[in-house]
Design goal:
With 312 residues, the protein is mainly α. The protein has nine helices and two strands. The chain has a domain of 133 residues. A two-stranded antiparallel sheet has the order 1-2. Helix 6 packs antiparallel against helix 7. The two termini are 36 Å apart.
């Protein structure tokens, strides 16, 4: 979405923080209203507001709630399609997907082909798949991506190729490894243990804490955000890693098998098709630069002598 905003360095952080703040406040107010309408022991987990309005005699309000829920699901689906279409567009620009998916509509400035393909694929999958399966797969994918983003944030903040020393790089790798291992160990013990003895947590939690503290103390930061950056680094990304991995532990085994199969199919495509396509793109980029030109990811190699003057 950064390409579609006038000032992404300012607008995107404001939009993210502002939207999360509004949503958090709205959820808290809704939860407070629900608890005031009905004792929390009587709240229906499947349809809390519908049952609550029926309990207080406001049957007409449940139809408004149903319409709001339908609109909410539609909004979420559209937001997912918008995000996935942009991912598909950037993948197509690297030639790992058909190039026509990277085409941008000149009037709207949006990836129209990628949006249509994403919307059609999402609709087909949703039509033939049970909701529980889709929900768990979406949860695994989202949490896995969030974990990778948190790791990437740590790497980007603490490592710059050619600047970071090998010693600092090794310290970074060790700290991240301990954060991942301690988080995974906590999750595994919570999911597999029947007694949930606190002794295991007394071991894994300090390991996570010390690894994060070591990352802050002994590894110098290689980058400092110029305008806006994630605060409380490395504590916030490290906590995100731990929470995401812990949440993954609550998902059933069958969903992980489906996720592994889907990931395997994607990896097979990448190694057989995408890897060669991206390599060819990089090779063409290097050859064209050596010839004095530049590479346009959407239009192919363009000579440095190219000019927009129609008379030339």
């Amino acid at each position: 979405m950064a390409e579609e905003t006038k000032n992404p360095a300012r607008d995107i952080p404001i939009g993210l923080v502002g939207s999360m703040t509004i949503i958090t406040v709205a959820y808290c107010l809704l939860a407070m209203a629900l608890c005031l309408m009905q004792p929390y022991q009587q709240i229906d987990p499947n349809a809390p507001f519908l049952v609550a309005f029926e309990a207080i005699g406001m049957n007409w309000a449940k139809y408004i709630v149903a319409i709001g829920g339908l609109e909410g699901m539609t909004t979420v689906l559209l937001a997912i399609v918008v995000g996935q279409a942009r991912y598909l567009t950037h993948i197509a620009r690297t030639r790992m997907m058909p190039h026509w998916l990277a085409q941008i509509n000149p009037k709207t400035g949006t990836p129209i082909n990628a949006t249509i393909v994403t919307l059609a694929a999402t609709a087909i999958i949703a039509f033939f798949t049970e909701l529980d399966i889709l929900t768990n797969l979406a949860a695994i994918s989202t949490l896995f991506i969030f974990t990778l983003v948190a790791i990437a944030l740590l790497v980007r903040r603490y490592h710059v190729s050619g600047v970071t020393t090998p010693a600092d790089r090794n310290k970074l790798i060790i700290c991240i490894a301990f954060i991942l291992v301690s988080s995974a160990a906590t999750t595994a013990y919570w999911a597999l243990s029947s007694d949930n003895d606190w002794i295991a947590y007394a071991i894994t939690a300090p390991i996570w804490f010390l690894a994060t503290l070591a990352l802050q103390v002994i590894v110098p930061k290689a980058r400092t955000p110029k305008l806006w950056g994630v605060p409380l680094v490395p504590w916030l990304p490290s906590a995100s890693i731990a929470i995401n991995i812990f949440t993954l532990g609550s998902i059933d085994r069958a969903s992980f098998i489906r996720f592994a199969v889907r990931t395997g199919i994607v990896l097979i495509y990448y190694f057989l098709v995408g890897l060669h396509a991206s390599y060819d793109t990089a090779k063409g980029h290097g050859e064209n630069q050596a010839a004095g030109g530049y590479w346009n990811a959407e239009e192919g190699p363009v000579s440095s002598n190219y000019t927009t003057n129609p008379s030339s």
